[in-house]
């Protein structure tokens, strides 16, 4: 961090530091990398990769030659419902809801919000670097994930 003069730290790194949180995998031939323990995509016979979300169904695909996963389920693509009683389940089937990203992959743990606050306060007292939390959302993003925005 010092060698490259990095001045921003991702808060998620304080949650996912243990070695047992990571496993090595080679999604791109010749490029091994570490991935969170919950991320276990399956290679398909055509060379693409499919990744299951919290529901167990495949929700992302990395085509052959790509370096990222595309969302493949859009729960409300045929129209939004009259009520949103199942919104929690449907969000678990889309990109941000189906895959946790740090530190929010710990969201279901007891006292997550308290731990998040305490961690940020502690780490900020130990560094002069800026702390960043990626939340991955904007005004239109959730609707797009649920229903794929069509602009004509």
Short description:
The chain is of the alpha+beta class and 152 residues long. The protein has helices spanning 87-91, 95-98, 112-125, 141-147, and strands spanning 8-10, 22-28, 31-36, 42-43, 49-52, 58-62, 70-71, 130-132. It contains 4 helices and 8 strands.
List its traits.
about 150 residues, four-stranded antiparallel sheet, globular
Task: Characterize the structure shown.
With 152 residues, this protein is an alpha+beta fold. Helices cover 20% and strands 21% of the residues. The protein contains four helices and eight strands, in the order E-E-E-E-E-E-E-H-H-H-E-H. It has helices spanning 87-91, 95-98, 112-125, 141-147; strands at 8-10, 22-28, 31-36, 42-43, 49-52, 58-62, 70-71, 130-132. The strands form three sheets. It has a four-stranded antiparallel sheet with strand order 4-5-6-7, with no helix packed on it. A two-stranded parallel ribbon has the order 1-8. A two-stranded antiparallel ribbon has the order 2-3. The longest helix has 14 residues, at 112-125.
């Amino acid at each position: 961090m010092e060698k490259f003069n990095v001045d921003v730290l991702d808060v998620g790194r304080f949650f996912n530091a243990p070695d047992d949180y990571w496993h090595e995998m080679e999604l791109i031939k010749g490029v091994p990398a570490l991935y969170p323990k919950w991320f276990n995509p399956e290679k398909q016979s055509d060379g693409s990769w499919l990744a299951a979300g919290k529901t167990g169904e495949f929700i992302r695909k990395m085509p052959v030659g790509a370096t990222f996963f595309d969302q493949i389920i859009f729960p409300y693509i045929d129209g939004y419902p009259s009520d949103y009683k199942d919104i929690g389940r449907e969000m678990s089937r889309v990109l941000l809801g189906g895959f946790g990203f740090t530190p929010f992959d710990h969201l279901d743990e007891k006292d997550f919000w308290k731990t998040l606050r305490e961690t940020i306060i502690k780490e900020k007292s130990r560094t002069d670097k800026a702390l960043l939390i990626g939340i991955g959302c904007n005004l239109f993003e959730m609707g797009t994930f649920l229903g794929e925005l069509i602009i004509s």
